Amino acid sequence: MSAPSTAPPAVRRSPARGPRVLPFPVTGQEVVLLGVIAVLWAVLGAATPAFLTSGSVVPLLVATAPIALIGVGMTVVIISGGIDVSVGSVVMVCAVVTAEAMTSAGVPLLVAVGLSIAVGGLLGLVNGTLVAYGRVHAIIITFGTLNVFRFVGLQVFGGSTVDGIPPTLAVFGRGEAGRTLGVPHSFLLVVVVAALFWYALRHTAGGRHYYAVGGDAHAARLAGVPVQRRVLLAYVLTGLLTGLAACFVIAQGTSTLAPNVGSGMELAAIAAVVIGGTSIMGGRGSVLGTVLGALLVQTVASGITQLGWPSQLSSLFIGLFIIVAVGVDLLRQRTRRSA
Amino acid sequence: MTTSAPSQRERRTAPREPSPGGSRGGAARLRGLVASAGRAVLTQRVVLLVVLLVAVVATFTTLSARNYLSAPYDAPYMALALINAVPLVMLGLAQLLVITSGRGGIDLSVGAVVSLTGMVFGLALGEWGWSLAAAVVLAAVFGAACGALNGVLVAYVGFPPLITTLATYYVFSSLAIVITGQQPISTEPVQELYGAARAVPVLGSGPDAIALPLSILTFLVPTVLVVWVLLNRTTYGRRLYAIGTNDVAAEWAGIDVRRTRFLAFAGAGLVSGLVAVVTTAQFASARPDAGTAGSGMALPAITIAVLGGVAITGGIGRVAGVVLAALLVVWLDAGILLAIPGNAGSQFQLLALGVVLVAAALLNGLTARRFGTT
Asked: DSSP labels for A31-90?
């Protein structure tokens, strides 16, 4: 805040004279992120020769996939002015239902994936209906459904782990079956989904509606945007993508699924969205940034492991990255406003 | 309705003095009372919570009397269950301070502050040989410093609170684990602290005595009193509600909005620091994941605050609501544990918490539209 403390923010109109921050050379958070990731990869490649080999990069991309996928949905939700903290529990429910179906009924790949996506969509529908038509703040609703979904998931688990999961989902895994020409399928899917969402949000009327709703829901309603339907759809989309991400999570794990699956993923996904430059206040953001944000987070985690540092240090860096990303964003907004 | 004007008036005055004029019929007076009581339940969160609390206790006491429960649900059991209310109420009050300050105020980092402060407290007491009093003061100061970091970023730099505290959540929880290389501290001075978590008889004697966990008396009650006085009897409290309601108007009224908001975050950190002491005593060990294991302490604390009627948009919130919400959840959980033993019981606790939270929030939204603002 450059205004003196006695003047309210609303009257800050003329740009502050005096030492001005130079306009940022690049305008998009994506460019900044690409640069940061490139620098990190170069540094890590120099520090540990094993980093820039396919044996290291492929697992990195595979591990990025679930968070990036959930993050894409979360981006739509956050752009529309909401938030969904229940995705960790949604991952858990989808994963356990799918794993149970595969172990006990031996369902084939397509059915397993379809089931997981359907369950995710259903849970997203619950969230979306409550948020859109209950007129309660999204964070409260999703805090509530977080607990309810976790209950549902634990009931399916039945107090133990799911063991002996067949390798039906290996096409999404880190193994040889999960790659075509060395590129992991899960990451390819993320790229395709992100491209679709990027196009829809940017170039279709329905996509622009989300920005309108997040910018000012009341104005959007007056302009003819079906606000409640859009909000509902945002949560359903997040649920669907989270269901797909749950398949990735199963594929990346061992043949045993423990009840703590998915815990903490909501915060990781929100972190990826925020690092990607989406404003938590709504109305601004992009899914490409989110994918890059997820990639950055995973790069840090993987780099720290390869450097032999304690793996918990990675969350320290995630925290610092969030602060820097938001700081850069604030700075950019301010220079744009005063320019 | 022909009697609408007088009954309206009576409805408004009924809660305090039923009806001074004796000329009106008893039936009408009763109807007015029922209507105002119903309206109070719907619009006043504290009244709703009291009704729910009575319903929960009555239900489980009845079930207990008919031997449906695996152990008696009586006063001593309920008193012992209060140990779980200590972190819930204290962190709920921390959220009350922060959420009331408005502009999307929320603190996701309280659990991580509890972890990190617990480690610092454990180091001071168990490794550096500090006295208990000095270590407790250090914990409070350290927690306040963590909260102050949030406060500076939110109030002075202008970061959104959700993001700031998400970031510091990561930073603090990581530091808490790295600081001792994942090892908990449970040297002798820390283990002796377990005595601070024991139950002391407060009512009666012998096996029937009602024993309260000591941390209720040493930490919970003082914190509740201090926060209540702060919010209701000091100019700081008035300022906090003012900036939460409309911070532009508050700034025009000459309130230092940034300082007020900063202090709310620092206060939340201080309370979290004290929770770290309680948690360390309860486990007889300073654990690096004390406040972040599982879904952590922050989400339940926010849930309690919201259930207690703290408006997520700021400016509205009462200490009594937070305390009642925590009591409701703790005694409901305690009852569920007896009704559904084992693993399933703790799962149904999640269901109960989620349903109560969503239902209370929806009810609030509904009544706000029906009766105007709450």
From this structure: HHHHHHHHHHHHHHHHH-TTTTSHHHHHHHHHHHHHHHHHHHHHHHHHHTT---TTHHHH
Question: Among all chains, which residue has been given the structure tokens 């969509």?
Answer: A121
CB-CB under 8 Å, B162 with A312:
no
Q: Is the pTM of this model over 0.90?
A: no
CA dist., res. B334 & res. B313, Å (int)? 31
**Distance between CA atoms of A255 and B360, rounded to whole angstroms?**
40
The answer to whether A178 and A120 have CB atoms below 8 angstroms apart is no
Residue identified by tokens 């998915």 is: A262
Instruction: Write down the residue that tokens 């009852």 correspond to.
Output: B335
ipTM of the complex: 0.77
Nearest residue on chain A to B168, alpha-carbon basis = A319
Judged on CB neighbours under 10 Å (0-12, 13-18, 19+), A218 is exposed
Nearest CA in chain A to B311: A137
Nearest to B167 among A137, A148, A322 (CB): A322
Cβ neighbours around A284 below 10 Å, total: 17
> Could you give phi then psi for residue A183, rounded to 5 degrees?
-100, 125
Residue A278 C-alpha, separation from nearest chain B C-alpha, in angstroms = 11
Q: Is residue B158 less than 8 Å (CB to CB) from chain A?
A: yes
pLDDT tens digits for A132-168? 988 788 888 888 898 899 899 988 888 788 888 888 7
Residues 284-303 of B with CB under 8 A from A: 294-295, 299, 302-303
> A183-184 and A179-180 as β-strands: parallel, antiparallel, unpaired?
antiparallel
Q: Please list the residues that pair with B199 across neighbouring strands.
A: B213
